Structures are given as structure tokens and as C-alpha cells.
Amino acid sequence: MKKIRLLFTGVGRRIELLRAFRQAALCLEVDLKIYGADMAGTAPALAYCDYTRKVCGMKEPSYIDELVDICKNDKIDLLIPTIDTDLLVLSQNVGRFEEIGTKVLISKPDKILICRDKNNTGEFFESCGVKAPKTYNDYKLYKDRFPCFIKPKDGSSSINAFKVEDAAELEMYAHQVEDYIVQPFVSGREYTIDIFCDFDGNPIYITPRERLQVRAGEVLKTQICMDTVMIEESKKIIAKFKPCGPMTIQLIRDSVTGENYYIEINPRYGGGAPLSMKAGAKSAESVLRLLCGETVSFFGGVIEDGAVYSRFDDSVCISIGSNSELKGVIFDLDDTLYSEKEYVRSGYRKIAEYLGESSAEDELWSYFSQGKPAIDCYLEKIGRVTEKEACLDVYRAQMPDIHLYDGVKEMLSSLRAAGMHTGIITDGRVNGQENKIKALGLEDLVDDIIITDSIGGVQFRKPNDISFRIMQNRWRIPFESMMYIGDNLSKDFQAPKQLGMKWCWVRNEDGLYFDDENSDGIDFVVNDVCKALHTNIKTDKAGE
């Protein structure tokens, strides 16, 4: 599978956007890792990232330096900004990212400046041959009709934007809004056009939608409207703007004349862009295809014209309180309850017995320790490469010689004695995992065991949340009263965090997937039930 690493800056509440990329990766069979950059570390969308990275404020001098270091260390393929604040500085520093192999989904600096100053925006629209409301920079010079509209020259999200009924009210707001513009108020239906282009500014998707309900500048309800006039006018704007990746345009269709008046450009993913994706404008999928080296042309397929989408708020737990109630504990298996290296060594022992080679176990282990394909290397050395499949069958079918970590059996017994639900969710080949469970005697120590592959294949492995939902349905207790304990930062905790479960990272430095480099900036929930694991467990910064 192609591995792609994306870094989202200002990730905030962009959960819908992250989900869209997850779904696209699943459809394309791409191994996608999402990194989220945030200053406070409390943004809800961070719960939907594989890894989080804390950064300074976007206006701080070291902001770009920190992002470059992150992209270099994490081998980021593409950086995707999501808010207006850092667009210009990112655009001005694209070269620094490209030097380390990271693309930035950002338009050129001169185009960003067009969007940040509403004076430039109106002039740009007119230069494209589309209409825009006339702009005034001094309320004293405004001689146009009322009502009018006053807003910051470089504002966003409808902050400090006001409809003004008369000259007296205009004067009042002019003293409240810094660096403002004034425009005649256009009465009519409001629309957003979600645009996505390739890296060279060639259009792939143009999706107009009506803004049926809005809160604080963010759309709550929208209807797809594949209006041919808007699409053709958008093509004129695209031809001159040449956006790299996403762009949203806002307009008002005058209720009297029926003419379109264009008022805003945002050269990034708009908050409602995932709604267009749901209707068929698969821009997240296009991003991944482009990164895979494919050529993506203008979309000629079906967009669900007329489809209505309504959005809702949700919540995730960022940090648990001191009196949280725990009723069920689910464990990962490999490198959490026992050492997976012990399993590997056991498998090599079985292969040595099969081959009749007394030195095979140690030599296979030596290759493995060097990070080499042990079975291939050893069979090539002894001239028996044709027996690879047979050796793999021996390895996979083994009844392994493995043991629970010290204290685990006693811990599991004490949890059940205390009336706590206990379970295991583990990935891997069904036969192999079943043999591990039997060898460890876990059927008699926990209430429920789910091998994710048994649900329907590898697509249900973590971070897929289906197994957790099944366990919760069996136990009939709230997710908030459940905890998951595992060792793999890259996949174990995404689903528990999103579902509202507590979670605990077993910091197993001897584990196959130990990844201390990606542990910075992540909070780790620790409860008394974990202490019997006799494993070094990292706590969160509050020491909870």
C-alpha cells in the first residue's frame, strides 16, 4: 500500500474534513497517516488524528521553523492549511517545505493577498468579468443605497460583520470595526461554491451549494445546486486565480435582478467543503491520487444535485476528570499482555524443528533483529528457498510457547472479582491469534475476545471502531465508562478517543511497534487498573 503522511495546520474542529480523507484512503487502499498541528493541544479534531504536534502561535516568528522541523522529522508528504491565519506566511515559504520534500496545498502569495483584502477581492472579481458589490473604505464617502454592509477588510467567519440600516448606524459601526470596508447590501439567496483544482490550478470539481442556514459564518444546512451560470463564472475566476487545491467562493444572487454578486474568496477548504464531498465532489480522494502520481482531470461524473445536508455538533473527551467511573477494561494483546518477540522466537523454533537445522532459530532471530526478512535470508543461505511457503505455514499455525507478563493474570482476576467487565480486541490472522489466546489461557481470564479479522477481514483492524462498538453493545455500558489499554500509538487509540473512551498507552520499549518519537504532545490516561502490568506507563502532564 502507498503510504501518505498529511499534516493539517489549525486543525481545530475540522473532523468532517479528516473523516473525508480517511474514507478516501480506505477506498483507494492508501496507508494514510494524519498529523494535526495545534497550539493548545485541546482541539477536538486532534482526537481524529494519528499523531498530534504542538506548535507556537501562527503569528510567532518561529512558526514556520517549527512546521518545517515537523515536516522533516515526520516525512510529511503534504501540508494542508485549514484557516485564513497562516495562509500568507505558508505561501511565502513554500520553497522551504519543498526543499525537504513536503508539498503545501496553498496558492501563490499574490493570490492570497487578493483574498485577505476585500478591496482587492472586489477588483479581482470584476477583472474576471463577474459582478461584485462596490467597495468603500470611508463611511463618509458612502453615498450608495441602504441597507449596506460593513465588515473588516481582512476578516473571516462573519466576525464584526454587520448589516446597517441608515447613515447614523453606519457611523456608529465605523467607529467599532477596525480597518473596515462598506458595501451595498445585496438581498437574495447566499451560495458557496466549493472548488478543487490540481496542483497547477486546473479545475477538477466545481460544486455550488445554497447556504440555507448559517451560524457565525459556518454553514449548518446546505443544498447542492449545480447551477450552470455559477459553474461557468467559476471557471473564469479559476482561470485567473489558478488555485492550488481547494478554494471556496461566496456569492449572493440578487432576489430582484437574478444577477450573481461575488463577495468572498477563501483559498483553502471551507468549513462546509465536506458536504460537497458527500455529494460526489471527491476532492480528498483527488488529493491522494495526485500524491500517488496520478493525473486527475475535470470531473464528468454525477454530483447529487439538489441533495440537502444538515450538520450537528458532537463532542470528544480531551482530559478525564478526577471522579470518572470505570466499568469495563479492554486490552490489546500483542506487546500489551505478553511479548510479541517471544512469539516470533517461538515461531523460529518451530521452523528450525521443521527444517531439521539446529542453528536455524538463532540465525533467524539474528536476521530479524537486524530488520531483515529473516525467513527469506535464512532459506537463501541454506539453499532451500522453495520451502518459504511451508515455513510460513509452520510459523502461522504454531501453538506458541509464550507467557503473560508478570502480574497480568492476577490483575485480570482481580478485575473480574471486582465486577469489572474485561475484554480483548486484537488484530491479526484469526488462526494465529486464536492460538496465542489458547497458549496464554486468556479464554478463562476475560469476558469477551474479538479478533478483528474474524469480523470480516483486514479492513476491520484498528483504527476501525467496529470492534469497540460491538464490545460496548455486548456490555451495555457507556463508552465513557470503558478503557482501552494498548501499546501501538499509530493505531490503538484513534477509535477509543473518538468514541469517548478512556485510554492508556503501555510504554513497552521492548515492543515491536514502540514509537516514543510520536508520543510528544499526547495525553495519556492512567488508572489504577494499569499498575499491575509491571510496564513503564507514561502519564499525562497533569499526572492523572
Largest sheet: 6 strands, antiparallel
CATH-level-4 superfamily name of the largest domain:
HAD superfamily/HAD-like
CA-to-CA gap between the ends? 38 Å
Number of helices: 19
Provide the β-strand percentage band.
Answer: 15-25%
Q: Based on helices, strands and strand pairing, what is the structural class?
A: alpha/beta
Widest beta sheet: strand line-up: 13-12-9-10-11-14
Which architecture name of the largest domain does CATH use? 3-Layer(aba) Sandwich
Instruction: Let me know the number of strands.
Output: 19
Please identify the oligomeric state.
single chain
Query: Nearest-angstrom radius of gyration?
Result: 28 Å
Task: Compute the average pLDDT.
Answer: 90
Cα shape: elongated
User: Helix fraction?
Assistant: 25-40%
Description of the structure:
With 544 residues, this protein is an alpha/beta fold. It folds into five domains: 3-105, Rossmann fold, CATH 3.40.50; 112-116 and 187-310, ATP-grasp fold, B domain (D-amino Acid Aminotransferase, Chain A, domain 1, 2-Layer Sandwich), CATH 3.30.470.20; 134-184, 2-Layer Sandwich (Dna Ligase, domain 1), CATH 3.30.1490; 328-338 and 402-533, 3-Layer(aba) Sandwich (Rossmann fold), CATH 3.40.50; 341-397, no CATH class. It contains 19 helices and 19 strands. The chain has helices at 15-28, 63-74, 87-92, 94-99, 109-116, 118-127, 167-174, 228-241, 273-278, 283-291, 340-355, 360-369, 374-382, 388-397, 408-417, 430-440, 453-456, 466-475, 494-499; strands spanning 3-9, 31-38, 51-54, 78-81, 103-104, 148-152, 162-164, 180-184, 188-197, 203-215, 218-224, 246-254, 260-266, 308-310, 328-331, 421-426, 448-451, 482-486, 502-505. It has a six-stranded antiparallel β-sheet with strand order 13-12-9-10-11-14. The protein has a five-stranded parallel β-sheet with strand order 3-2-1-4-5, sandwiched between helices. A five-stranded parallel β-sheet has the order 17-16-15-18-19, with helices on both faces. Helix 16 links the parallel strand 16 (421-426) and strand 17 (448-451). Helix 12 crosses helix 13. The two termini are 38 Å apart.
